[in-house]
Design brief:
The protein has 326 residues and is mainly alpha-helical. 67% of the residues lie in helices and 2% in strands. Strand 1 and strand 2 form a beta hairpin.
Length: 326
């Protein structure tokens, strides 16, 4: 029989049950399910706080700047609504930066995927010094980015390029001073290719390591069974390996997309968006507008355009990954 407690009405969300003359409080927060939820949320709270402080607070501050006329020389910022976003959309340089950002991100992503996959399969083969090669593989990814990019800038130099010297020795281009001597960072098409190449050189070891970790997790007996059934290498890769390591591939692709789309250092150190905007991407445009130009509000608005470019790709990857888990 259910009845109210002798001391008055029960608190909301609780039920008092009389058993053997004693009243037992069965509040929902005292149930085992509620305790499990409370324990889980308690463990999750530090991670949520960490993400909120390092991601949520800067994002909110960027949104505040983007909707104001904040500048370096003005201590007081006024609310201007979406004027900074409208100003960016009316600028032709902005659309050039969007196009270059998409070309840079997609092109580098495809090249890193192809090279990373090839290298991962090569490192699976037994050969002498494989451990040394695997250790050397991470050097481009671990070198200080300023050091590695400045080294590439010297190799791309218009007068003393070691790349041009090697190409001339192979008779692929003319000697020094010839009309076909390429200016890697001074010609629009070559400049975009050069910054993309350096990004690929720096990032494809990460793709290879991620894929190598996935390949080593595939049970050998599964691949042996596919070989017995007559499956070719590409059939084993598409129908056996890829479905089994799909979660690793999707997570690696998400990280690589984020890193490439927001890559400011390589373009800034090599070309700073030149020549004539040929390598201008959204991060460099936002930096030059907000920091070097002093228009913090306009720079923040330009940087926030990365969010609608990145969000659909990440949502698509996560939705595909979730569907594969069921």
């Amino acid at each position: 029989m259910t009845q109210a407690s002798p001391g008055g009405p029960p608190p909301p969300g609780s039920i008092s049950v009389a058993i053997g003359g004693r009243v037992r409080d069965t509040s929902w927060w005292r149930t085992p399910t509620a305790r499990r939820y409370l324990f889980g949320y308690t463990l999750l709270a530090p991670a949520v706080l960490y993400v909120g402080l390092l991601v949520g607070v800067p994002f909110a501050f960027s949104l505040y700047l983007a909707m104001s006329d904040a500048s370096v020389g003005s201590p007081v910022a006024r609310f201007v609504g979406i004027e900074n976003f409208k100003s960016a959309l009316e600028n032709a340089v902005f659309y050039t930066a969007v196009r270059n950002t998409l070309v840079f991100t997609i092109g580098a992503g495809i090249l890193k995927g192809v090279l990373g996959t090839t290298l991962a399969f090569l490192l699976l083969q037994p050969f002498k010094g494989r451990k040394v090669v695997r250790a050397l593989l991470v050097i481009p990814f671990t070198l200080p980015i300023a050091v590695s990019v400045l080294g590439w800038k010297w190799m791309f130099d218009s007068q003393f390029s070691v790349i041009n010297w090697a190409l001339s020795r192979l008779s692929l281009i003319g000697g020094y001073g010839s009309p076909d001597w390429p200016v890697w960072l001074g010609q629009p098409g070559l400049a975009l290719f050069s910054v993309m190449f350096v990004n690929v050189w720096r990032g494809f070891p990460f793709s290879a390591i991620v894929l190598l970790a996935g390949l080593t997790s595939v049970p050998p007996e599964v691949l042996d069974a596919a070989k017995v059934d007559g499956a070719s290498f590409m059939q084993r890769f598409r129908k056996v390996i890829v479905p089994m390591i799909a979660p690793i591939l999707f997570i690696g692709s998400a990280f690589d997309t984020v890193f490439t789309l927001s890559d400011l250092s390589i373009v800034y150190l090599l070309t700073n968006g030149g020549p004539d905007g040929a390598t201008e991407i959204l991060p460099t445009l936002a930096y030059n507008t907000g920091i070097r130009g002093g228009a913090l509000g306009r720079g923040a608005a330009i940087s926030l355009f990365l969010f609608p470019l990145l969000l659909p790709a990440i949502v698509l990857l996560l939705r595909t990954l979730r569907r594969r888990q069921y």
